[in-house]
Specification:
This protein has 288 residues and is an alpha/beta fold. The chain has 10 helices and 12 strands. Helices cover 38% and strands 21% of the residues. A 6-stranded mixed beta sheet has the order 2-1-3-5-6-4, sandwiched between helices. Strands 9-8-7-10-11-12 form a 6-stranded parallel beta sheet, sandwiched between helices.
Length: 288
């Protein structure tokens, strides 16, 4: 692509940003869709987020992604915020509007589209959600918004699970999140579940671990979705498959959160066949 005076710029702010795959996703999309758009990462030091957002607007950037550790901090520097992002308390996409940027959370819609792409439905399902950190909390909001039947939220710290369940149930006006201590997994109802693994357990370099390592637990799982995408098969996924369940990693979530951001910036819909082409290119790039 030729960079010229008509090229629109998008980017990523975070710390660190050196190993991000976002430029590959967005620049590949721009190439495939013949858009005059360039996407670059910006390393922003602690305390500089307000200046970075103000500068991005002054430089006429079309939009920004936001990564750790600034997804909550950036909310003080934007002029509008989407309802889902407000409930979750985290923003990962800024879209240029009059006078500043509007904040969105595309992580959870990205997860939803990723699961739909794999043929996974969550509406009306009973879900086991592993973890109560930031990612799990956002997944709990997604599940509530998509009318799951029940979410059994399992976490090592029961107090943290209770806090997340209380917040999500109150903010959504539903009583669908049921907190449990991780060690109480044997008391789950005797049925099959969709399980979403939202902890960092199993991520490189601790690839030989799973948050629960009892085969009895995995006998209750018909489908397992791990938010981790490296390694491409976590121990959680292996144990799901060993009990004849289906298992998926989180690379499509990474893809679709980016695609949704791209759609918001450019006011369009990316065709599914294009999304799958980018997915194949992304897997090759990451050697997965």
């Amino acid at each position: 692509m030729e960079i010229n005076g008509y090229t629109r710029t998008c980017g990523l702010i975070g710390n660190p940003v050196e190993h991000t795959m976002s430029p590959f996703i967005h620049n590949t999309l721009a190439h495939m869709l013949s858009h005059n758009l360039a996407y670059v990462p910006f390393h922003v030091e602690q305390g500089q987020v307000p200046d970075a957002v103000k500068g991005a607007y002054a430089l006429n950037l079309l939009g920004l992604n936001v990564t750790v550790p600034y997804k909550s901090e950036v909310m003080a520097s934007i002029c509008q915020i989407d309802d889902l992002a407000k409930k979750i308390g985290a923003v990962n996409t800024l879209v240029r509007v009059e006078g500043g940027f509007k904040g969105y959370n595309t992580d959870m819609p990205g997860l939803y589209r990723a699961m739909c792409s794999e043929g996974i439905r969550i509406e009306g399902e009973d879900v086991v959600l592993l973890g109560a950190g930031g990612a799990a909390r956002a997944v709990a909001f997604l599940c509530a918004s998509k009318n799951v039947a029940r979410v059994y939220l399992l976490n090592r710290s029961l107090a943290k699970a209770l806090a997340v369940a209380k917040e999500v149930n109150e903010k959504t006006g539903k009583e669908c999140i049921y907190p449990m201590a991780l060690s109480d997994y044997r008391s789950l109802p005797d049925k099959k579940f969709l399980a979403i693994q939202a902890t960092s357990v199993g991520m490189y370099p601790n690839m030989d671990k799973a948050v629960i390592e009892d085969q009895e637990f995995y006998q209750k799982i018909h489908t397992g979705y791990d938010l981790i995408y490296r390694p491409s098969e976590t121990k959680f996924m292996k144990m799901v498959k060993e009990q004849d369940g289906k298992a998926f990693h989180g690379l499509k979530m990474l893809l679709y959160q980016g695609i949704i951001a791209y759609e918001l910036w450019n006011k369009l819909s990316v065709p599914e066949e294009t999304a799958l082409e980018v997915y194949q290119a992304l897997k090759e790039k990451m050697e997965l």
